[in-house]
Amino acid sequence: MIVQIATLGPLGRLKAPGTWGSAAGLLWWALVVRYAHQKGGPHEFIFDSLVVLTAILLCGVAAAFIGKKDPSEVILDEFAAMPLVFLFNPHVYGGATSFVFVLLGFLFFRLFDITKPFGIKALEKLPGGFGIVLDDVMAAIYANLALQAVSRLWALLV
Fold first, then answer.
1. What are the distances in angstroms from CA 129 to CA 77, 81, 133, 136?
2. Which sequence spans correspond to the domains of the chain?
3. Which one, of 138, 28, 132, lies nearest residue 77 by Cα?
4. Is the pTM of this model over 0.90?
């Protein structure tokens, strides 16, 4: 059961599993997480943090069951990290350009997750679920910062 959750069922066995995990995370954000934002305060951040902590545990156990350090079919890490891309960015919560900002955030996340610049690769060396999940969390943080920069530039131009 843990492996099924960590691989998001059949999604982890598809071609380009990280992209599928990210797409599932985007859908999760769109249908569930962004409503925590409407509550105001730190609700969305706390909710995202709890999902990431759960992913660290489940991904670590699933990797041990599978017998690999960071199995490519384990995609709960991308799923859990994807919503972090949109934290604290008002441009993704409605308006005429929100779809463009959401799509850009997804693309930034995939770029940073695939290329692993600025020390992201070093996080993969952490043990167990920490190494599996925290590199994706850092990719999401970088994607968030890039999206924030584009949002601020957009606000200046409009």
1. 9, 13, 6, 11
2. 2-157
3. 132
4. yes
